[in-house]
């Protein structure tokens, strides 16, 4: 049961990261989602810039250990994503770049959202 729960945490973690990176596109469709998305972006960027371990990673480790499995070292990105994109490991510099990309992508999307809203109100 614990392994299954740990797998569920991985899925939630991945979906959260996808929401952080691309959730601005959902905001273009449903502007009210900005109230969820902006704090998620701030949290995601803060995790990258500060080099913290996400609580979802710690929860997954706990569940894996309780289920008789092994916890992994590092964070979610290092374990699941960086091994594919950055096989040598995730450095602090790369984390700064990822955090910056999250901010740039979302600032661009929000600029589009606000310009659309402004143009609608002028019409």
Strand content: under 5%
What is the terminal separation in angstroms? 56 Å
Identify low-pLDDT runs: none
Quaternary structure classification: single chain
The biggest sheet, with number of strands, parallel, antiparallel or mixed sense and barrel status, is:
none
What's the total helix number? 5
Produce a short descriptive summary.
The protein is mainly α and 123 residues long. It has helices at residues 2-29, 34-50, 55-66, 76-85, 92-122.
Describe what this molecule looks like in 3D:
The chain is mainly α and 123 residues long. 80% of the residues lie in helices and 0% in strands. It is built from five helices and no strands. Helix 1 packs antiparallel against helix 3, helix 1 (2-29) runs parallel beside helix 5 and helix 2 packs antiparallel against helix 5.
Structural key phrases:
single chain, about 120 residues, mainly alpha, 5 helices, about 80% helix, about 0% strand
Topology of this structure?
Blueprint: H1 2-29, H2 34-50, H3 55-66, H4 76-85, H5 92-122
């Amino acid at each position: 049961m614990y392994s299954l729960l740990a797998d569920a945490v991985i899925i939630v973690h991945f979906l959260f990261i996808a929401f952080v990176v691309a959730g601005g596109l959902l905001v273009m469709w449903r502007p009210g989602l900005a109230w969820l998305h902006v704090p998620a972006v701030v949290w995601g960027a803060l995790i990258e810039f500060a080099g913290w371990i996400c609580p979802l990673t710690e929860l997954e480790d706990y569940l894996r250990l309780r289920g008789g499995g092994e916890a992994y070292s590092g964070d979610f990105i290092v374990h699941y994503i960086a091994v594919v994109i950055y096989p040598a490991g995730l450095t602090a510099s790369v984390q700064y770049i990822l955090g910056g990309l999250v901010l740039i992508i979302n600032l661009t999307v929000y600029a589009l959202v606000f310009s659309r809203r402004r143009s609608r109100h002028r019409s």
